[in-house]
Design brief:
Blueprint (H helix, E strand, L loop, with lengths): L9 H10 L5 E3 L7 E3 L15 E6 L5 H12 L4 E6 L6 H6 L7 E4 L2 E4 L1 H11 L10 H16 L2 H10 L5 H21 L14 H20 L11 H10 L3 H6 L3 H12 L12 H5 L1 H13 L1 H11 L12 H20 L18 H17 L8 H18 L1
Parallel strand pairs: 3-4
Antiparallel strand pairs: 1-2, 3-5, 5-6
Helix pairs in contact: 1-13, 1-15, 2-4, 2-8, 5-8, 6-7, 6-8, 8-11, 13-15, 13-17, 14-15, 15-16, 15-17, 16-17
Length: 406
């Protein structure tokens, strides 16, 4: 443990991280998840005033239908509160409240609305600021029809069948791909109806209806089907749409990173990848605001992280005579090292490893570190634990520290 004195304390790391990022979360002691994002518009509320919207959503923040509503709330700058619902054990009060028993649902100034499409339209009707439907009556009617089409065209059913279903017959898979591409061709044509990169002349609810699903498909299809939407010359307008969506700050608050999407498909649906997981975005991995956010999340939530690692990573098997104290200290050490690297990057000299051709690491401490970092790399989740950009920076830093140390 001779390097501990060279590392910053957790309090020092947290203070430095918070100077370099505005991202914050509210603590939820004893609850799951243990923190929740703070709406960017919460400052608009007067003191002791309740937010006008309460959203009921999934605890893991994976649900694409919940993401639609969150996206709209952030775009329209509507202050809101969040109530998380455990989808594997929904409370009776929720199933009694919401006829479908599904998420999302919202209360808008006390009035219940459910189904994501209906919620989006209700928010648009009640909150006129930052409109997400065109003013022009004809274009408004077209946008509303395309919102309906996003639910009824069969695009989503065909897309996820192509992505998820285990298919061994090459002809059947080819037919599914052809049907999926036909739906993408329709979207490509629709995107050409108005100038600009969005479905109608400005960013709208139509874009929000498609964003979560297209984002997941673009991330997962290359890994699980070897098929690419992004970079595919067949779909230039869709690729321009992805680029335009990526310029919206609200999108970065609500989206998942590609690796979260990749891992989720394997965990929830048992899908088997045919390619490596998505590569990390270099720009996000180097951006100080994302690196600092990742360090802030790790520093602020370290106790929960250490408890999770001890419980679920298998690292307790390295304890001698059942004494986990040295293991816990080694976990803490490596997490502080990771936070230090996230904040300072290559300005710090990473200890141990093969620096100077000599391996100075205690074998047990090194093993604990390797297990800890490898476990965390695929354990963190965006946006449940941090934003997608911060998750990317976090994973890249883990890779760097692992490579440098061992």
């Amino acid at each position: 443990m001779s390097i501990q004195h060279k590392l910053s304390t957790w309090d020092e790391l947290l203070e430095t991280a918070r100077k370099n990022t505005s991202a914050r979360r509210v603590r939820r002691p004893g609850q799951s998840p243990s923190t929740a994002p703070i709406p960017s518009s919460l400052h608009k509320l007067l003191p002791d005033t309740a937010a006008p919207v309460l959203i009921y959503r999934d605890t893991n923040s994976w649900c694409p239908f919940c993401e639609r509503v969150w996206f709209a709330l952030e775009e329209k700058e509507i202050p809101f509160e969040t109530e998380f619902i455990d989808l594997s054990n929904k409370p009776k009060w929720y199933t009694d409240l919401v006829p479908t028993t599904l998420v999302p649902a919202v209360k808008i100034e006390g009035n219940l609305v459910y189904e994501s499409k209906d919620i989006l339209l209700a928010l648009e009707e009640r909150f006129k600021e930052h409109p997400l439907l065109p003013e022009n009556p004809e274009e408004n009617a077209i946008a509303r029809q395309w919102i309906e089409d996003a639910e009824t065209s069969g695009f989503r059913d065909i897309a996820y069948k192509f992505l998820r279903e285990p298919i061994s017959d090459a002809n059947e898979l080819a037919n599914l791909q052809a049907a999926f591409e036909a739906k993408l061709d329709q979207l490509e044509q629709t995107l050409g109806k108005y100038p600009g990169s969005f479905f109608v002349s400005t960013f709208s609810l139509v874009d929000i209806m498609y964003s979560a699903h297209l984002d997941r498909l673009a991330a997962n299809l290359p890994v699980y089907r070897g098929y690419h939407i992004k970079g595919n010359p067949r779909f230039p307008r869709l690729n321009a749409w992805f680029e335009a969506i990526n310029q919206r700050p609200a999108y970065h608050r609500v989206r998942s990173d590609s690796i979260t999407n990749n891992l989720l498909l394997r965990r929830r649906f048992g899908s088997q990848p045919v390619e490596n997981l998505s590569s990390l975005n270099l720009a996000d991995s180097q951006a100080i605001e994302y690196r600092a956010e990742a360090a802030e999340r790790l520093s602020d939530n370290r106790e929960a992280a250490i408890a999770d690692i001890l419980k679920n990573s298998g690292v307790q098997g390295l304890a001698v005579n059942g004494d986990i104290t040295p293991v816990k200290e080694a976990i803490d050490l490596h997490l502080r090292l990771l936070a230090e690297y996230l904040i300072n990057g290559d300005k710090i000299v990473l200890p141990w490893g093969r620096i100077g051709g000599k391996d100075n690491a205690d074998p047990t401490v090194a093993a604990v570190g390797a297990i800890t970092l490898a476990y965390l790399r695929n354990r963190i989740c965006a946006p449940r634990d941090m934003s997608a950009g911060a998750a990317t920076a976090f994973r890249a830093a883990v890779d760097k520290v692992l490579t440098s140390l061992y």
